[in-house]
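Technical appendix A lists one of the benchmark inputs used to test multi-chain prediction within the project. The record comprises two sequence entries:
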Amino acid sequence: MYDSGKILIGIIVFLLLFTSPIWYDLAFGNTSIKPNLVLPTKAGQTECVMSAEYMRDNHMELLNVWRDDVVRKGNRIFTAASGKKFEMSLTKTCIGCHTNKAEFCDQCHNYLGVNPYCWDCHVDPQKLEIK
Amino acid sequence: MNNNRRKFLKLAGLAAIGVSAGKYIDIIAKDTAHTTSPADSISTKQFTSVNVDAKNRWAMVIDLNKCLVEEGCTKCISACHKTHNVPDIGNLKDEVKWIWKENYENAFLDQENYYMKKALKDKKVPIFCNHCDNPPCVRVCPTQATWKREDGIVMMDWHRCIGCRYCIAACPYGSRSFNYIDPRPYIKEITPDFPTRTKGVVEKCTFCDERLAEGLEPACVEACTAKAMIFGNLNDPESNVRELLKENYSIRRKPGLGTNPEIFYLV
């Protein structure tokens, strides 16, 4: 191999640079920004419509089911596993409890770079108050 | 030499995989931890049915003798437009309207004559979606964003509307409006419980399906202090609308088209 010294050094420098985020992370601990959710504090409301694990992974699917049920079938009541009944409404039920969208929904959505278009039409009441 | 280079590349490759795999194993382990929790599969059986029922056939009777007795009354219009976040854009090209007033002769094209009752000829008539029994807008909609519910309401699903405007072309009553621009800046006071619309969808009166679900009458009916708008169930022979239609002469808009409108006007 010609110029093996230079090539080897080059490869090592490249690998170090390429993996530098990992070394940085290892050296300085947890420096990356993480979503910081603020859970709702509405009185008398301690549970979500489904378990937190389910909601974390599948809230978007649940919202689609709710949407189709309300708009297309006219069913508006959701019965949770605990037997508790909820109105299937993004603004009234979800945002009625998670009143601060910026400290809840937006945290993960911004972190993951997803931009759900729910709010193009549905109203975040808190934004109205600010206005 | 060759042998050495191969060895080196193999080792370098393995090392790279090893470094990156460590991170991913962590992530994958966390992921499977919450996707496999057992009680979480959701079935539509959990939902309970409420109010859309073929037993009902919602319709409205508008008594033109009572309507607009008060000069320039727009109570029904402002109530509806406020409840449903209908924008006031202020130019005719972009106008969005759910309920509005039209001259008698324009509303009832084929039912006017030169020498008719003056009070009627000068009348402004409140018009909105007729919730036809045979709705042409539904036939042309390529995505089923508009459809006729079992209780006769011609509904709109704004999630599904692609803005092709076939329904606007098909509706013989001009009941539908298109959002050429984002309507939000033009809504004076947003009602948070009802969504606004977005640029590129068609909208129209939905007979206040969201209020019916709560057992309330449509917003326009509630707002009409003259009681000129009467809402009820055509399938019930005892209902207020059936009684009114039995006792009075009523007309409908463009009956010859066969759309079978369900808004009746008493003249």
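Chain B touches chain A at residues 1, 4-5, 12, 16, 19, 23, 34-35, 37, 39-40, 42, 44, 46-52, 85, 147, 149, 155, 157-159, 190-198, 209, 213 (CB under 8 Å). Confidence is low (pLDDT under 50) at residues 32-50 of chain B. Comparable benchmark entries are summarised in Table A2.
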